[in-house]
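pinging the channel bc i need a second pair of eyes. not urgent but kinda urgent?? the chain im working w is below, pasted from the shared doc
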Amino acid sequence: MINNSLKLTIAYTIGHICISMVIVRVVTGASLWEAGSVALLEPFLNGLWLYVLHSTWQRFENKNRSIM
């Protein structure tokens, strides 16, 4: 089963890619294919970072709760 961090990451990444495609297209006049190519890498890495950050944050929070 997919955990909440991964679900959030997937939804965030899809939205980020769509937004990036529109911005690249409007600002540069690139085709949707070109804008999509440009927009894929950066949001993918941001999505990966969000997953790592959220997962690490949850472990930190859980560790602090068990100490108190």
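so The chain has one domain: 4-59. and The two ends are 30 Å apart (CA to CA). — does that match what u expected or am i reading it wrong
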